[in-house]
Amino acid sequence: MLINKNSLSELFRNIKTTFQKTFNSTETQWSKIAMKVTSSGSETKYVWLDKFPKMTKWVGDKQIKALKAHSYTITNDDFEATVEVDRNDLEDDQLGGISIQAQSAGESAKMLPEDIVDSLVNGMFTEKCYDGQYFIDTDHPVLDKDGNETSVSNKGTKALSIATQADLAGTTRPGRYR
What we know:
Structural class: alpha+beta
Mean pLDDT: 84
Number of strands: 4
Strand order of the largest sheet: 1-2
Helix content: 25-40%
Strand content: 5-15%
Order of helices and strands: HEEHHEEH
Oligomer: single chain
Low-confidence stretches: none
Number of helices: 4
Radius of gyration: 25 Å
């Protein structure tokens, strides 16, 4: 292959097409348990109010509830995957490996959110969340209906059975969910 602006433009167009085709066809499961939130800056601050009161029929004076505010900030990380292309492979028209690399890059890019969510799921008993407790824990601090601090558990106590273990064994990859 003669290496010039036109041949490189065509090569990059083919790489981008192969990447995008693989990216679009790669299936992921992460969105079943996580939500995508678009961020436009270097970090995103999440703010919410604790335990919004249940809607009730309005009778007499309004019953004003005090709400506790929570927040945490996530700093966005940069990700990359860079590969080297040997000039001799271009000159000798040995481009099959480049196509495979473009496919691998497309799959890797599509699987990135899956890998991040898997890491969070795998660390839910060992990594702390916004309130300083493990994500799955027995004593998350909350306010009760009277505004007093108490704790709640989001840790299940159901024992695994042979049936649930068999079901878990049917996941597509270790650490993956259906």
